[in-house]
Amino acid sequence: MQHNTHGEMQTFKKAISWKLLILSYLFVEGSCQDFGGGQTQFICTSVPKDMDICAATLQNSMPGEDLKTTVMQLRETVLQQKETIMNQKETIRELTSKLTRCEGQSAPEPGPGGRRKETGIKNTMGDVSRGPSDTLAQLSQTLQSLKQRLENLEQFSRNNNSVQANSLKDLLQSKIDDLEKQVLSRVNSIEDDKPGLRNETEQRGRVESTLTSLHQRITDLEKGQKENRPLDKFQLTFPLRTNYMYAKVKKSLPEMYAFTVCMWLKSNASPGVGTPFSYAVPGQANELVLIEWGNNPMEILINDKVAKLPFIINDGKWHHICVTWTTRDGVWEAFQDGVMRGSGENLAPYHPIKPQGVLILGQEQDTLGGGFDATQAFVGDLANFHIWDRKLSIGEIYNLATCSSKAQIGNVFSWLESSIDIYGGASKWTFEACRQLN
Question: What is the pLDDT of residue 231?
Answer without folding.
Answer: 84
